[in-house]
């Protein structure tokens, strides 16, 4: 037995899920090494016996071992192999030979289920899972094209994560794919188990509000994006597809819209656009019209607004900011609530905050209406992380409008547009119209 | 350096939020502003007296308050009032400017110059002349006021109490007539009524900012119709019949005949028949109506021509024929010589449920 | 056509931003009747020189303006382009100061002027820092929201128009060519079109599309002057500082939730103007960096912005702005006449040379 194999066995000996068994395979004594929590040993052994018995030949060789992937020549390879869930077969007779087999694995994967974060009306309800291979398989099911290329790249430092790049050759931009591949391969530092890690591995600026990686759990969406020429990443242990490059239009257009008739689809998309605009503009408009520019309101409206604000002790901007903060708290809290407590908290939020705070003259009831409309409008945007971005951006217009009035709203809108325009993914600008090629590629 | 920049950015963001929060630069929230709807103006010994009708939003409904103050200029008077009020006076929602008849007769050119220059006052506000003293007028209005503040300007609202005999002239139109060569305006005159809140007693002819004459409500209808307003809804009563106007249209054409300007104007009336004495035929009704309108117009035209006020803006039709320098003296010179041929064409649209004789 | 969309859109909206504020006052001041003649004359002059300019650029191989000038040698290029740099700085100062003044008069009386100027200036500075492509993409996004608003209010402003004020068609004695107001009105043309000389490596455009965009601007030029004249009459309209803005104040739209639509109209246009100022700043920095490549872009922008803002703060009254306009007139003439002619000449000369390389615009 070679030294390094002994070394390996000794290293893991204290682990409670490590097995190091002596067995007899086809008359030869072998040693089986691996993690019992990853390898289903009994099934593997019975499969091995059956297979070995049916193969011709008498000696133990690679050909007669089911799932053999070759020899491990170095310690690092063997360690990586066992950590990946493979089985090491070391024959007692020969020294230095260590075969790596893909065994029957323990069933640790979640079955293909329905999506958690996205609601589907009229569309397939399968969702991606944590395993890269399963995801590639699902993707191939939805896009049966020979042009679909899948490439698995290990990336990361001491515990490399496997990342798969999928694209359609001929539609995706080859430069883009090349850059992506390079960045992933040369990354040796970042840990890509979270999205932030992926972002810095790919070389994007960390501090951007706009997510450069759109994620989706739905294979139908992913397939549609691939057909449009976008590139998809699957990261091991992340149950969604990461789509690049991102465009502003992704906030408003979902592939599942195309399951409706055309005019209804336009209507739905227009509704999303209006929702985004309302989120950004409505609180700012309230503050501007109440505090700085009430001349822009009709007299009857102005009087009823003044009436609703009667007795509120602090300026409109603080009132709005406080209520927005409370709303954000409610939204954030409701994500973490277990299903049993959820409805109670909703009731608390609705009744107490809505009704009681108005009766106590802490805020005006018009503000509650405005903010409720804003929150609902915010949720019409496609993409969960996109709605976070819009939620943050509305504070820009709010602050500017509190200082400058209606001018502040437009200035804030310009700032937002400028910010969105300055985002780009490897040269593809965020505001590009989908399908239009950029005139001159320029970094 | 990086850390320094980050701190700077953070400080800037916080500073901006604080600045926004303090409601910076003296802007008051809407519930700390008074939004007067009616402004009353009359002359006093050394200047002007200004009245403001303020709605005060309370939790249940709205109260109405009338304040007044005097000063050398209008701004001084308003300033005086604002000093004594507990909220800021915001004139941007003014809907009606009520001018006392004496001030109108003295000349309002300066006043309107002030209104147009200061952006505080909306140029869309209506100009109305009041025939009685403003103090008692406002007091009576205040007494009768219901919680709905708008009852004074509902009188002039097109989708509320307006009727085609009431002229509608806004501040900018009066200002335009002050400087225009060929155009004068007509402003309604009101006073407080015995049974209703206000009473419309006719209109004033304003030439270059000064009131020069009065016309009756029927004549105001003619003015409105020439101005393009639809006379719909007005009831015309003749000796033996009554009709309701359902549509009006005026066509006109002006040309120079030698040195005399001449104008042809045709009023196309569509009416509905309402009351009819027996033995009257439709033709007779149409003829009576025509004559009534023609005599009314001729009378009105003579009156305003003597007052040298071109309320129908006839001068506009001569912009092609008369050069601009000569048009400058339109009111003094050519207007006096203008001959207008006025015709009315009546079409009876329907006669209700009961048949009438044609001839 | 779709390839030129960003450039043409920017050209269109930048002009719109400049037309509706200062242009009507100047044109109304320079003629008493028949205003369409000075308008069309000015426009024809502008279109002719614009055509010269873009033709020269395309003959020169679709490169940007600075490369063309550098073909003459560095020193002559610096000399010829220095007035452009100065003009741009002056345009920044005038635009920011004048528009802040308008904003302060029209709706923000209580905010101190420096704060309004800070808002109207710092945003363009940040945009200029981000780069030229974001400016164009942001223009497209902003235009999608603001152009419909603008067009709606523009259409509504015909509400109180009396068409008889249009006559007489011709003025008996036209003396607008001798009136300085007429030349001041060229401010609306001169500041914009030079950007076409800088966009080339980043965006392309077709000359025909550009000419159509110019034609599309003609009704806006005409009506920005005629709507006040037709509503108020020349005698009254010549009293106003901002005739179109006053006309907007008289609009009565009964079914809208808002009372005064002036502020929405002005702000839509001001957003376009801010984008224009951003692009002008970027061009100035680009000029500086092309001739002195060792200068750092960020620092140049910062220094330039500080100087411009300082000048804005120094200007105390509207009369000073008028003075600046006067001084600007000669440089403006240079920009409008000499630069296009020079570019055309260089372009033609370059085409005749056997070894000129053209950057292909087909992809």
Q: Would you kindly provide a brief summary of this structure?
A:
By secondary structure, chain A is an alpha+beta fold. In chain A, 46% of the residues lie in helices and 14% in strands.
Tags for this entry?
heterotrimer, A: 443 residues, alpha+beta, 5-stranded antiparallel beta sheet, disordered C terminus, B: alpha/beta, GMP Synthetase, Chain A, domain 3, 8-stranded mixed beta sheet, 4-stranded mixed beta sheet, 11 helices, 14 strands, globular
Please give the alpha-carbon distance between the first and last residues of chain A.
56 Å
User: What's the number of helices of chain A?
Assistant: 14
Tell me the strand order in the biggest sheet of chain A: 1-2-4-5-3
Shape of chain A: elongated
The two chains with the largest interface, and their residue counts, are:
A-C, 37 and 43 residues
Profile the largest sheet of chain B.
8 strands, mixed
Order of helices and strands of chain B: HEEEEHEEHHEHHHEEEHEEEHHHE
Account of the protein in words:
The complex is a heterotrimer of chains A (443), B (359) and C (363). Chain A is of the alpha+beta class and 443 residues long. Chain A has helices at 3-12, 41-54, 75-83, 132-142, 174-186, 195-202, 219-227, 262-292, 299-308, 316-336, 342-359, 365-378, 384-404, 406-421, and strands at 18-25, 28-35, 68-71, 87-91, 99-101, 148-155, 161-168, 214-216, 231-235, 241-244, 424-425, 428-429. A 5-stranded antiparallel beta sheet of chain A has the order 1-2-4-5-3. In chain A, strands 6-7-9-10-8 form a 5-stranded antiparallel beta sheet, sandwiched between helices. In chain A, strands 11-12 form a two-stranded antiparallel ribbon. The longest helix of chain A has 31 residues, at 262-292. Chain A is elongated. Residues 439-443 of chain A have low confidence and may be disordered. In chain B, the strands form 3 sheets. Chain B has an 8-stranded mixed beta sheet. Chain B has a 4-stranded mixed beta sheet with strand order 11-12-13-14. A two-stranded parallel ribbon of chain B has the order 1-5. Chain B has 2 domains: 29-215, no CATH class; 228-359, GMP Synthetase, Chain A, domain 3 (2-Layer Sandwich). In chain B, a hairpin with a 2-residue loop joins β9 (198-207) and β10. By secondary structure, chain B is α/β, with parallel strands linked by helices. Chain C has helices spanning 5-30, 36-59, 65-70, 74-106, 113-130, 132-156, 180-184, 187-190, 207-232, 234-237, 243-249, 262-291, 297-314, 318-352. Chain C is mainly α and 363 residues long. Chains in contact: A-B, A-C, B-C. Chain A binds chain B through residues 289-292, 294-295, 299-300, 302-307, 309-312, 315-318, 321, 398-400, 402-403, 405, and chain B through 16-17, 19-24, 27-31, 33, 35, 37, 55, 57-59, 62, 90, 92-93, 95, 122, 149-150.
